[in-house]
Amino acid sequence: MLGKYLRINSVQMPNPNPGTWQQGLNPIEHEYFTENGTRKTIPTRLDRMSWSGDFNCTSMMKNTLEGYCKTARVTCLINGDSFDGTLRLSSPSKLVENTELVEGTDGLWVVSLVFESF
User: Fold this and answer.
1) 103 contacts: CB under 8 Å, gap ≥ 6
2) pLDDT digits (tens, 9 = 90+) for 39-51
């Protein structure tokens, strides 16, 4: 149940759709050339957090998340660890079939997000 541990800019996220969540730590590398002209790459840190997933949400939450994708920086809190980074849509949001008449919303949407820390 990842949803209760995932927040974006203090907004509680729903659980990601089954089978869509991917998370990892990517190395931040420094590349340089040696005296004899060979290229060397040295990992300097292994803490560049990234994740992706699909989320079912209301039209109001969809609009909030799409707004975050237009900002330069968001804060992601996952399992108690805080990461600053960028949030973007990995594909256009899709309306879930036959949900446009759900009361109090303009339908339920599938939002595909990708987060990368700085």
Assistant:
1) none
2) 988 877 667 889 9
Give residue 107's identity as a one-letter amino acid code: G
Rounded distance between C-alpha atoms, residue 1 and residue 4, angstroms: 7
Strand partners, 76: 8, 83
- For the whole model, what pTM was predicted? 0.80
Domain that holds residue 20: 2-117
How many Cα neighbours within 13 Å face the side chain of 2? 20
- The tally of domains found in the chain comes to 1
CATH assignment at residue 26: 2.40.30
For the sheet with 81-95, list strands across it. 11-12, 6-8, 74-78, 81-95, 108-117, 39-58, 22-33
